[in-house]
Every structure is written in structure tokens, then in C-alpha cells.
Automatic annotation (TrEMBL):
Lineage, uppermost ranks: Bacteria, Pseudomonadati, Pseudomonadota, Gammaproteobacteria, Pseudomonadales
Keywords, in A-Z order: Lyase
Protein name (record): Deoxyribodipyrimidine photolyase-related protein
Keyword Transmembrane in annotation: no
Gene Ontology MF term list: lyase activity
Taxonomic source organism: Marinobacter nauticus (strain ATCC 700491 / DSM 11845 / VT8)
Length: 510
């Protein structure tokens, strides 16, 4: 045999760099469901089903395409419990010339694979992951020498590079790079939100659901109602479903939240993009085609394209630029444990309950729930970054370290000093009231900041502003908040502090 080609669970693309130039007759593709990867955090059970099922379908597709595949199915007693052990066993058995793989999406595993040639005694070739618009070296070059790394400027470079939504004169379509000011509408039930794309479990997925229910019964969430796509063909149908039914309103209601609708007008494509079932450029090109055909407005399509070639590529660049130290950042000095209701949804705060409940059922919550509800609460309450990062990594079907970590540690917790935002996304209950109908069904009163029934977000917001004066008072984007805090009467400030202290001391009862 010539080579072992290692393909990981988020590398399910036929055009993966590790497969380039490989010899179907002599090389052996290796894929493995291993205990160490399945259990290093409290993964949502739907996430485990999705990844194992998509891996099994991909392995079958490779075999149908003529590849030789060694596939290890999960069993807790498998002798090989880690990727390294699987490779070591096969290397002993087949004596390959080398191991070939593609850069993985996590520093922890990247370290292990990078070192593995020492124990294996054969070369391990790690190829760049070409499934992104911007590769790691290109991002490093873009970042070099810049005082501040801002997504918006990076995004413009990516627009120019890809030509997406660019005129033939090299100008942004519609005369503006960004139409976000059009994208902040509250949703009041109309137009109706489309039902999400559903793919009923086939025999492979059903078998995986049984496996996960048997061996991962203590893990977060449920396998019930699993409806995600698990092949590239199905993911393309999910993309078409989004373009037809949700994209036209994606922009308008991008920041909206609802008490009754889990998915609103979001694409629900992140699981497929992150595992390689969909290609980011093909997704963006489809959306741009819909705009050209008059099937979706520019504010929606630009907003959607920005999320993918802007935010998604930017956070990946930040991750690889700053790891491994990045994961240890805690610039706001937070030390609080994660409140238990993050795992149970058992809280009287309606917005938190709704976001966590949807997360437990679907392994999904949309961006604004992640950022402005569960994230905002963790920021205001001063939860330890590592605890909240571990939660996000566990509970979402699309969560992989390279994308989860910068979003949580950076965008939400501002623990990195501000790579993902020039000011923290801290907000009081007023924001949640403005963008949703949660508050009208809540035990707490959003109009109150003090008193027993006052919305906890309100006093916590001022407590956050007050306790981080040294961190933010000189930030020009925060001046107004400090002015507002300072001009309140001292008794009012004391009452707000007292309410927030009570909230923090009794956080598990909220
Ligand atoms: C605290 C926190 C944690 C997050 N963790 C993850 C994660 O583990 N994995 C993940 O893919 N996204 C993560 N995000 C980003 C974003 O919330 C999800 O990508 C999005 O909710 C996925 O749902 P969707 O496909 O319906 O997205 P849409 O709203 O339809 O957006 C379209 C696509 O844009 C991309 N995108 C949008 N925003 C971001 C972003 N901030 N970073 C990266 N890509 C983005 C995604 O690929 C997404 O599929 C996180 C955001 C926050 C605030």
C-alpha cells in the first residue's frame, strides 16, 4: 500500500485536499468514529447523530466512487479509542509510505496529528484546507502590521477577491458594501416564517440514532425529531429550500427573535458548510443568482454573503492567527461558573428559557439568540470564558472549535480585548424587548430594573458597565453608556447595584 488518507468528521468533501492526486487502487482512506472525539465534551446527541451519519454516508459514497475505505464504527469497547490509535493500528498492519490528511479545525487535534509522525515512524503530510475562501497564510498576511483587525475591511477584500456582488467596474452592487441598517426589523408573525427543510432519517441515520441513544444517553439534548440533511445531495436541497422560502426575508428579520418560531428566516446551513457537505462559494453564488433573478432583495443577499465570506472566514483567520494562547484569554477577569439552567432551560427568564429549550430540542439556536440572549447573559453575569465556550461547543450541531471559540470568547465575552467587535455586545432587557415578543410572556418585568420582578438583564447591564469602567470608559463607543450611568442619581445607582448583587448571588434561582 502507498498511503493512508485520513479524513475527519468535518472533512466530508469529495474535493478535499487530502484526496488530491491519490491512487484509488493503492491508497486506503481511513475514517473513524472514535471515543475520544465523541466524548471530549457533552456533545448534543443530535450533533453526534449528524456527524456519524454524515460520515457513514460519505464513506459509502467514496466506496461507490471506487475508493478503498477503512471505516471504524463507534463502539465504546473499540481497541482504538482515538484517531492516533486508529492510524497507528493501520500503519502497523499495512506499512504505508505516509499518512496524508487535511488541516483540521481544532488546535487540540492539529497538535496531536502534527506530532504523530514521531510515534508512527512515517511521514505525516498535512495539506491546507482549500474549502475556505481565504487560506490561513493569506489571512496572516492581511492581518500583518494592522493596528486593528476589523471584519468589515476584511469582508471588502473577500468581495473583491471573489467578485461576489461586485459590478464590472469593481464597485459594490447597490453602491454600498453593507446594507445592515435595513436589517433590524422586529418580526410580528408576518410574513409567516417558512417551515425548515426536513430530511427524514433513512436506515443509516436510524441505526446511528439507536447507537447514540444507547451509548450517549447521558449527553445533552435529544435525538427525537432528527431532520437534518446527512449527504451533500440533501444539503443542496436544503440550500434550495432556504433560497426559495427564507432568503427573501433573511435580511429584514436577521436580528429578530420570536417566542413561537425557532428558525425564523435563517438558512440552517452552518452544519453542512462546517462539515464540507456544502461549499461556501456555491452557497453564496446561489444566493447572488437569486438576487439577479429578482427572487431576493439586495439587503438580504448582501447580508447573507457577508455572514459567509465575511464573518465565517474572519473568525477562522482569527482562530489560527491567535491560537493556542487565544483559548486562555480572559481579559475581563471573569470567574463565575456557568449557571446550571444553561443545561436544563429551567429559568423564569423567558428569552433564556426559549433559547435554551430550542437548543436542547434542535441543537440549533439562531445567531441573535446565541449572541444577545445566552451570550449576553453570560457576559453580563461574568461567566468564565472557558465554561461558556465549552457550553457552546457542546450544544450546537455546527460547533467546531475554529468557529465556536472566536464567536464565544471574542464576540460574546469580549475576553480577547476586542478582535470581534470594537465594543462588547452588552445589552439590557430593552434590546430583547425591541427585537422579540419574549418579554410580554415573561415572569420578569422588562420595564423595571430594580425590585423583585425586575428583568435581571437590566441591573446586570449597569453592573457590567460599572464594574468594567477601567476596561471601557475610554472606548469612544462606550462614552454614552458611562455618561448615562454617571448622570443617574446616586441612590438609583446604589439600588441598581444592590439588585444586581442579589441577582448574581441568587443566579441559580432566576
Ligand atoms: C456565541 C456564539 C457561538 C457561535 N458558535 C458557532 C459555531 O459553533 N459554529 C458556527 O458555524 N457558527 C457559530 N456562531 C455563528 C452563528 O450564530 C451561526 O453560524 C448561525 O447561527 C448558524 O445558523 P444558520 O446557518 O441558520 O445561519 P444564518 O443566520 O443563516 O447565516 C448564514 C451562514 O453564515 C455563517 N455565519 C453567520 N454568522 C457567523 C459567525 N458569527 N461566525 C461564523 N459564521 C457565521 C454561517 O455559516 C451560517 O450558516 C456562533 C455565534 C455566537 C454568537
Amino acid at each position: 500500500m502507498a498511503n493512508l488518507i485520513l479524513i475527519l468528521g468535518d472533512q466530508l468533501s469529495h474535493r478535499l485536499s487530502a484526496l488530491e492526486g491519490a491512487d484509488k487502487d493503492n491508497d486506503l482512506v481511513v475514517m473513524a468514529e472514535v471515543h475520544s472525539e465523541a466524548s471530549y465534551t457533552n456533545h448534543h446527541r443530535k450533533k453526534l447523530v449528524f456527524i456519524f451519519s454524515a460520515m457513514r454516508h460519505f464513506a459509502d459514497a467514496l466506496e461507490e466512487d471506487g475508493w478503498r475505505v477503512h471505516y471504524q464504527r463507534y463502539h465504546p469497547d473499540n481497541p482504538a479509542q482515538s484517531i492516533e490509535q486508529v492510524i497507528a493500528e493501520l500503519a502497523r498492519e499495512y506499512q504505508p509510505e505516509r499518512v496524508i490528511t487535511t488541516e483540521c479545525g481544532e488546535w487540540r487535534l492539529h497538535e496531536q496529528i502534527s506530532r504523530s509522525h514521531k510515534t508512527l515512524g512515517i511521514p505525516v503530510e498535512i495539506r491546507p484546507d482549500t474549502r475556505f475562501v481565504c487560506n490561513i497564510d493569506e489571512f496572516d498576511r492581511w492581518a500583518e502590521g494592522r493596528k486593528q483587525l476589523r471584519m468589515e475591511f476584511f469582508y471588502r477584500e473577500m468581495r473583491k477577491k471573489t467578485g461576489l456582488l461586485m459590478t464590472s467596474e469593481g464597485q459594490p452592487e447597490g453602491g454600498k458594501w453593507n446594507f445592515d441598517t435595513d436589517n433590524r426589523k422586529k418580526w410580528a408573525g408576518k410574513p409567516p416564517a417558512p417551515a425548515p427543510f426536513r430530511e427524514e432519517p433513512d436506515a443509516i441515520t436510524t441505526e446511528v440514532i439507536e447507537l447514540v441513544n444507547e451509548y450517549f444517553s447521558e449527553y445533552f439534548g435529544t435525538t427525537e425529531g432528527f431532520h437534518y440533511a446527512v449527504t451533500a445531495e440533501q444539503a443542496l436541497v436544503a440550500l434550495a429550500h432556504f433560497i426559495d422560502f427564507a432568503l427573501p426575508c433573511f435580511g429584514d428579520y436577521q436580528d429578530a427573535m420570536s417566542d413561537n418560531e425557532d428558525w425564523l428566516f435563517h438558512s440552517i446551513l452552518s452544519p453542512y458548510l462546517n462539515t464540507g457537505l456544502l461549499d461556501p462559494m456555491e452557497v453564496c453564488e446561489e444566493a447572488v443568482r437569486a438576487w439577479h433573478a429578482g427572487r431576493a432583495p439586495l439587503n438580504a443577499v448582501e447580508g447573507f454573503v457577508r455572514q459567509i465570506i465575511g464573518w465565517r472566514e474572519f473568525v477562522r483567520g482569527i482562530y489560527w492567527l491567535l491560537m493556542p494562547g487565544y483559548a486562555r484569554e480572559n481579559r475581563l477577569g471573569n470567574s463565575r461558573e456557568l449557571p446550571w439552567f444553561y443545561w436544563t432551560g429551567d429559568t423564569k427568564m423567558r428569552c433564556m428559557h426559549k433559547a435554551i429549550d430550542a437548543t436542547a430540542r434542535n441543537a440549533y439556536a439562531h445567531h441573535i439568540q446565541r449572541l444577545m440572549v445566552t451570550g449576553n447573559f453570560a457576559l453580563l453575569a461574568g461567566v468564565k470564558p472557558e465554561a461558556i465556550c465549552d457550553w457552546y461547543l457542546a450544544v450546537y450541531i455546527d460547533a467546531f472549535d475554529w468557529v465556536e471559540l472566536p464567536n464565544t470568547l471574542g464576540m460574546v465575552m469580549h475576553a480577547d480585548g476586542g478582535y470581534l467587535g470594537s465594543k462588547p455586545y452588552a445589552a439590557s432587557g430593552k434590546y430583547i424587548q425591541r427585537m422579540s415578543d419574549h418579554c410580554q410572556n415573561c415572569h420578569y418585568r422588562v420595564q423595571d430594573a430594580t425590585g423583585d420582578r425586575a428583568c435581571p438583564f437590566n441591573s446586570l447591564y449597569w453592573h457590567f458597565i460599572d464594574r468594567h469602567r477601567e476596561d471601557f470608559a475610554n472606548n469612544p463607543r462606550m462614552t454614552m453608556m458611562y455618561r448615562n450611568w454617571d448622570k443617574q442619581k446616586s441612590e438609583r445607582r446604589e439600588a441598581l447595584r444592590a439588585r444586581a448583587d442579589w441577582v448574581l448571588a441568587n443566579i441559580e434561582t432566576l
